[in-house]
Amino acid sequence: MDVHGRIREILAETIREELAPDQQHLSTEDLIKALRRRGIIDDVMKELNFVTDNVDQELPSSPQQPICFDRQSTLKKTNIDPTRRYLYLQVLGGKAFLEHLQEPEPLPGQVCSTFTLCLHYRNQRFRSKPVPCACEPDFHDGFLLEVHRESLGDGTRMADSTTMLSISDPIHMVLIKTDIFGETTLVASYFLEWRSVLGSENGMTSLTVELMGVGTESKVSVGILNIKLEMYPPVNQTLSQEVVNTQLALERQKTAEKERLFLVYAKQWWREYLQIRPSHNSRLVKIFAQDENGINRPVCSYVKPLRAGRLLDTPRQAARFVNVLGYERAPVIGGGGKQEQWCTLLAFLCRNKGDCEDHANLLCSLLLGYGLEAFVCVGTKAKGVPHAWVMTCGTDGTITFWESLTGHRYIHKPVNPDEPPLAEQPKPLYPYRTIGCVFNHQMFLGNCQPSDAVETCVFDLNDESKWKPMSEEAIKSVCAPGATTSLPPFPPLCASTIDASVASNEIEMQLRLLVSEHRKDLGLTTVWEDQLSYLLSPALASYEFERTTSISAGNEEFQDAIRRAVPDGHTFKGFPIHFVYRNARRAFATCLRSPFCEEIICCRGDQVRLAVRVRVFTYPESACAVWIMFACECAS
Length: 636
Known about the structure:
Layout: H1 3-18, H2 28-37, H3 40-47, E1 67-68, E2 85-95, E3 114-121, E4 124-127, E5 131-132, E6 140-147, H4 161-165, E7 171-178, E8 184-192, E9 204-212, E10 221-232, H5 241-276, E11 288-290, E12 296-298, H6 315-324, E13 326-327, H7 345-351, E14 353-354, H8 356-369, E15 374-381, E16 386-393, E17 399-402, E18 409-412, E19 432-439, E20 444-447, E21 467-469, H9 472-479, H10 500-521, H11 530-535, H12 537-549, H13 555-565, E22 570-579, H14 584-592, H15 595-601, E23 606-619, E24 623-635
Helix pairs in contact: 5-9, 6-8
């Protein structure tokens, strides 16, 4: 029964007996021997029932999908490319997720909180099956990762041990918790160094990975994952563990040295910046920012040209996509100021929400991918609240601000403070007050104009009397791709997995039920007008089109159709509203808070007909814009 307890007692006893003062180390073999002597291992073996899985001979299905298998079934044969080398990573259960110690076993069919593991490795992304949150979550997934070098003519050859040893990209693992309402939280973010498998004799190795929390809890253990790594096909000549360890140590040393030199340079740059004006001390010049694991990284490393493939067509569509990703400030325990946490891109995308800096970094990366000259601006909004937004510089000198949280764009025309007081000055429409610095993947510039107010700011970035630049060489040494092993590579964007019409129908049906119930409580009957509901579709489509392109179209036809549909002597009222989540109850509660919408939903009168239309627009990464329109017609 209490096998763990008995093993612990015997190990403690063995350590006391066998550790003579001169012998400081017991190997695993010694401990196993001690357990064998006491007959514990035999007892345990008798109790276990094995299921035969021919894991070694066969490999699972489609490389890009998580390979999910039952304990009962053997793995399916897969369509893998025989000329490529693969790393088969299995996640075999979790342990010690102590926060979920008290969770009751979920009943069959009951909705419960779940854990999902997301992986990214060299342009490949995977997602595990969701498993119920528990102290020992039942992860059982396999992932087939292709290990391959494109450069130096290696494109056609299968990677051998030495080639693989030179591939320093880690496997980025992000653990997400989804609660019963569909809200996601980031639990842990971990970089797995997989190359230890190259030094194991049979090309297989098992690891226990301790996951640490994020943000303020980055020193606290969240839980442990059991992971098994296996090379496939097996490598002909394995490297000695010593060679692998030496290579990893050399890389760490090189990275640490580059980071140290950059830190020395940054301190020197900051001293020079303060010598221009002592008041610069209070400007928001952000050279380093903490990621979700509490590690300080240069801000330039959070931005990189990112191509969206065929998932997004235009820069404005990219801005719309970033705007529909949820906004959430980094969680903070207790009161106090803003907890700062810039997320790595994978953590931001998997959680599907993040702070303004995460949005600005992603938007800047996408705009750079579209070939624009884009920068992230760090400054403040009204009331001195720190904020980040994006700026693009046109070839004709036009400066455009992009607000990543709303998708709005503003043209910047500087106010000239030396003009006579009666001269006509441009009125700024943007919400930004001050600006401390701008940066992208190659440049970092501190604002050294007499005032840091955005409205008087001149964005001539080549003028060193207005913007103090950092050496591009110094930035490249720590932020260029592959410059240091500590930089997480950027994941590709994934297409949406949401079926827009199914999701639209589901939400619409739920809203009809909620409206009918709400009216029933008020003692009102509900009559739905299907044709009127259908006529609302063009309006919702044109609202989304306007958000994406800033062009309004198709409004005349919509108005014409409504005029024809509503009989003489009847009044039509409509209320459109927009959400970035798909929870119908939450949306309905928000709608009822608007007096105008409540008036439609609770409409009393003669011949009242109600209509509701929902249209879900999907974007990459299961982000979506949800437009809802409630309408009613009644005899006036």
